[in-house]
């Protein structure tokens, strides 16, 4: 069950990144900043996480976890603590 939830979170994060970066070719290990990500896009992603996943991710964590894989793992860790 945890693996299934982890995959679901990663897929949702990936979809948000693709939409906000306007790039359907984002790999799970691509760096946000290498994909021309900037603070405005980051703010949109942060808001989408609240609205679509139901989790607040501090800006510093977005900088520390600049890939879909790493930020998904961070979000998963938050949800594991919450349950």
From TrEMBL:
Carrier domain: residues covered: 4-79
Top-level taxon of origin: Bacteria
Leader sequence residues: none
Annotated protein name in UniProt: Carrier domain-containing protein
């Amino acid at each position: 069950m945890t693996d299934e939830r982890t995959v679901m979170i990663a897929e949702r994060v990936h979809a948000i990144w693709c939409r906000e970066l306007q790039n359907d070719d984002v790999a799970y290990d691509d760096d946000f900043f290498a994909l021309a990500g900037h603070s405005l896009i980051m703010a949109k992603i942060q808001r989408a996480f609240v609205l679509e996943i139901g989790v607040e991710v501090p800006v510093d964590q977005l900088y520390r976890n600049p890939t879909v894989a790493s930020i998904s793992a961070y979000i998963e860790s938050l949800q594991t603590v919450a349950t």
